[in-house]
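Q: What would this chain look like folded?
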Amino acid sequence: MSNIGCAPRRIAHLDMDAFYASVELLRYPELRGQAVVIGGRSVHQPVVEADGRRQFAKLRDYVGRGVVTTSTYEARALGVFSAMGMMKAARLAPDAILLPADFDSYRHYSRLFKAAVAELAPLIEDRGIDEIYIDLTDVPGETVTLAQRIKDAVRDATGLSCSIGVSPNKLLSKICSELDKPNGLTVLAMADIPARIWPLAARKINGIGPKASAKLAALGIESIGDLSQAEPALLQAHFGLAYAEWLHAAAHGRDERPVVTDSEPKSISRETTFERDLDAVRDRPRLSEIFTDLCVRLGADLRRKGYVSATIGIKLRYDDFRIATRDMTLPVATDDPVQIRRAAGECLRRAPLERKLRLLGVRAGALSRRDEASGEEPVQQMLL
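A: My prediction, written as C-alpha cells:
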C-alpha cells in the first residue's frame, strides 16, 4: 500500500489498562491499590458480612488447574500474569485477592468504550474485548490532543483508563501503547525508531514469542536494534524465508497493514504462545486448561460480535516453527463454547502431537449472523 500523494498515516492502538481487573475495581473500590487476580470460580465470590463489609477469597485458597484471566498491576509486580497457572500464581502471591471472572460485565464495558471512541473516530478495527486499532489519518486535530480526547471519552463513558500509542502503522502503535502503561499516551514518528524502539527487547514486537526470542538471543540478537542490523541470510538460515523477511521489516518499523473495518469477518480466532514449549502427554492438564479457555473466549467473541460458526479449526505451531491446522464442519452453526470445545478437540485428535508445542489456537470460520443472542455461557459443563 502506498501513501504517495496521501496524508501520512496516523494509526492508533488503544489498549484498556488491566481491563477485567479494572472493571472489578469499579464494583469493589476498596480493592484499589491491592494485588487482585481474576480467574476464580463462582465459589470465590465475595461474602457480605452482617456489618456490610465484604470478605474476599485469597489466592492461597485456590485449588484446581485453572489459569489466570488477568491481574492488577500490583499483582503483576509480584510476577502474576494472564495465562499463568493459578497454582503457580498462588505460590508467588498467596495473599492476593481472588475474584471470579464476569464476562457479561466485561462485554458491557467493552461496548461502552468502543462506542465512545467511534463518536470521535469511526474507522475502528476490533481486536478483542479490550483493544482496538483506530485510523486517525483523516480525523481533524493535532495528534496528541486527539489522542487525549479519545482517552477522556473512554474514561467518561466507563470510568476506566486506557493507553494509546499513535504511529504511522499498526505494528509500531501496538508497541507504543505498552510503553507508558497504565494511562499512557505515546506518539512515535519513523525518525524516533532508533531512540525509542531499537533499545527494546526483540520480544516486544508482536509476533515474536518466547521461543523465537530465545532463538534470537542464541544468535546474539537481544534487542530490536540488534535485529535491525542482523544479516538477512542469518535470519533465513534459522527461521525460513518468510519469517526472516517479516523479522527484518518489523525491526525497521515497516508495516503496511490497513485498519480493517469490514463488519463481516471471514473468521474469528483465539491463540496463545506458551511461556515454554509444552508436551502433549506430560503437559496434558495444562494444555487442556488453556485449550478450554481459548474455546470459552472464542465463544464469547462470537456472541459479542453477533455471529455463529459452521467451521471450527485449530492451529498448532511446533517447537521447530512448523505449523499444522485442522478443521471440521458442524451440522449446525454455533457460538456455544461446549460445542466449540468438542469440535476443536476432534480436530486436535487428527493433528500430529509428537513434537512439543509452542502455540495453540482455535478458529471459528464460515461465519453467519445470529438472529438473536440466547443463553448463558455453559462453561461449567465443560470436561477438561
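The mean pLDDT is 90.
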